[in-house]
User: What shape does this take?
Amino acid sequence: MSASKTPPHTVPNEESLIEYPCIFPIKVMGKAEPAFRPAMLELVARLDPLFNDTKIEERQSSGGNYVSLTLHVHATSREQLDEIYRGVTGHPLVKWAI
Assistant: This one.
């Protein structure tokens, strides 16, 4: 029996339905605070050197308390995509990400 190199709850690249490299949309919902958008842009740009911050979709919630951002990342591997998701979901202003 061989030990798996894949972390728990992840899918190895060879079993992924995503072909890398690709442009992958990540939707992030967070508190409608002035710091939210710049924090997400800085975080994603640090992990994706090809990130284009001019192609972001932004929507306010009906009550104005939350904002969603759709960020189009240049994903080069499953590991990179997982790292981006961990970064955004671990941020204190983020409610969820898909």
Q: What stands out?
A: Strands lie at 22-31, 57-60, 66-75, 94-97.
